[in-house]
Sequence to fold (900 residues):
Amino acid sequence: MLTKILLSEDQLPKQWYNIIPDMPGQMAPVIHPVTMQPVTPDDLLPLFPMGLIEQEVSQERWIDIPEEVREIYKLWRPSPMFRAHKLEKALGTPAKIYYKYEGVSPAGSHKPNTAVPQAYYNKIAGTKRIASETGAGQWGSSIAMACQLFGLKCTVYMVKVSYGQKPYRKSMMQLWGAEVFPSPSNRTSAGRAILAKDPDNQGSLGIAISEAVEDAATHEDTRYSLGSVLNHVCMHQTIIGLEAKEQLKIAGDYPDVVIGCHGGGSNFAGIAFPFVSDKANGKEVRLLAVEPASCPTLTKGIYAFDYGDTAKMAPISRMYTLGHDFMPPGIHAGGLRYHGASPLVSQLVHEGIVETRAVPQIACFEAAVLFARTESIIPAPESSHAIRGAIDEALLAKEEGKERVILFNLSGHGHVDMAAYDAYLNNELQDYEYPEDAIKESLSHLPKVG
Amino acid sequence: MLTKILLSEDQLPKQWYNIIPDMPGQMAPVIHPVTMQPVTPDDLLPLFPMGLIEQEVSQERWIDIPEEVREIYKLWRPSPMFRAHKLEKALGTPAKIYYKYEGVSPAGSHKPNTAVPQAYYNKIAGTKRIASETGAGQWGSSIAMACQLFGLKCTVYMVKVSYGQKPYRKSMMQLWGAEVFPSPSNRTSAGRAILAKDPDNQGSLGIAISEAVEDAATHEDTRYSLGSVLNHVCMHQTIIGLEAKEQLKIAGDYPDVVIGCHGGGSNFAGIAFPFVSDKANGKEVRLLAVEPASCPTLTKGIYAFDYGDTAKMAPISRMYTLGHDFMPPGIHAGGLRYHGASPLVSQLVHEGIVETRAVPQIACFEAAVLFARTESIIPAPESSHAIRGAIDEALLAKEEGKERVILFNLSGHGHVDMAAYDAYLNNELQDYEYPEDAIKESLSHLPKVG
Fold:
């Protein structure tokens, strides 16, 4: 019985897939937050090394993965794909459920797929330090690990609510040599301004991004790094989907639906983008992004120009957004608490190529517990959104009596998130109301562009 | 550059290696704690299913791995082997350091290698519930996971000091459906007797074993399961060393020294036993067991008959022991806090085939942090003892200017042990004095056998 599908190291992709030349419709420009004009590559140099800026705007469909990066990828890649036989049996579904497992990386999630090349391109550009932000800490721990590998210093602004909820991820960052500050902090004017208004502010990704961007922009030897949203980040993550396609070929299957959880978009992009051109070429494949009901960017936000951060220091992109000053409730899937979304994913949603669904927290933990009790792997709370999506698709297949092939991205393990499982098992978790008024309010602050 | 050495699923061993027929010298009998006569297989039936009792005493060198067990092994096996190029470089050593990585299992350690077959043999024998104990929780989480897979109930007595230190491992057990009690508990007469004398008793593996054994012995549908020490447990773990030998062949190397950390002995046995017969056949290979200086069973204990547990309910074996009522200090490597040792490993030590070394806690964390900052993987505190041993061997090779091949077992990841790393990084850890008086006292209570 084929349960695990492995690729050899020789089959580790040599190139990332850049979806930009295959995007439907016209891509909107990115707008400078001060001049309100389209940003140029030069505008971005205080924040990013040229190697990444080039990737951000490249029209090349395939971008070579540097050999130094591939060598590090080999620590955990190609990652395994599994057929979830036991979960299928528990659901009594005729569907075949496959999942790609990214929890095998040393940080326990998919985030090192982009942390490593980002650290690499910074290293060769002469960067000495990277400033970044993190929610639940999957990204922060990954960029800390990557900086350690390339001898870069690393400063992480960690959303305060997660700093308290996920102390182990903070410790992982420190173990990998990073300095970590709860955000909002008093180290930046962005942080100080927020604390002045609200000393108990629990933070958001938008605020933490402001702090990290300010830190990088005001220090000559420092660059900024983002763990999701941007084009080059989504591109680095396509290694997931590229491997998954090869693995499904070995299994002799092709997915009816490809599912990823959605926060900033890179993990969803990673599994889904390599299937977009198949879809354009007439293959029937659905692409489904699953987000938390408490931070429903794709399902309740609007498609508009907005700042990437709360303090309006980051570039303005056209994307689905809940407004840059929206403060999402403190759910345990801290990695999904972002007001905006990848412009690439947003455009694909807008064009009707990507489907979206919002699911409440408790239903996700219910799915994660069923998964852990059948497939043995304990999922990260973020990944549990993809599992919820996959289970619902499998139950639908059962209802309709149809054999379907479902592929989802199990983006990380939950060993560092056990406090969240404790809360679920002890019936202490709550579902947050969809914060309609707060979203309406924050959406009234969008920038005027063009 | 060869960094990761993989085996295909076809290369997953089909048999475990049973060292009993290859043991040097005469094996001592196991003694019944009540009759003080050699135990018979029938004596063990209240505790173990016949399938495991047969393995415990088998004279067959190779034992088939059931297909149901191999199917589950494939979730994470064959496990990867890595060459620690970056660690070697940091040490400036001419030695080649290889490590076998067992942290890829769903529980994050090597323990599922035996938990799965133990649950399997119990299942086919009609057992409804398994009672067991755990120190740091690597074993408890693994037996919980395995019971869940085979539909068995699971009760775990967790050493109280670890119950407090490692709350996430307790949560993992509960997530996998087990009930978990801090030990000593008031659920057993063994536990109640200890609490009556000392209500603040922080527990030990010896006490927790007493509780689990009593639970199993007093419930018809329940059997007992041990995560280390016993012959069949060591045998299940030989899958590690069997794979490692094949992987080193691919690398074109043979080890000068094979290193494992040592608590009860199964993880060391797993990596080392498959090399014992090579050694008997004239191959020059050293086998090194590394234990904590605060619980120095192999280096400061005596080779004598002793009870496996504190309440004298478990069988009496000839082994290295610190005395069955020795209470080890509360180091973070909770899995290594056991007064006794595997009789098989003990005999190999006694015969001069296995070398031993005791290392203090802080030196182990120092080694673990260097490892995490070079090789990226965060080790479990238990595994850090093997790393300390490997680093010391590599430094010796440097001093002597000799190229040596070092193999060690990285038995688990430390994502659930970050509080221990926090304590180390904040200089809050202490090294415990070798507790000479306590050991002398407990060694005065050994049973009189024969």
User: Anything to note?
Assistant: Chain B touches chain A through 39 residues (CB under 8 Å). Chain B has a mean pLDDT of 95. The two ends of chain B are 58 Å apart (CA to CA). The longest strand of chain B covers residues 153-159.
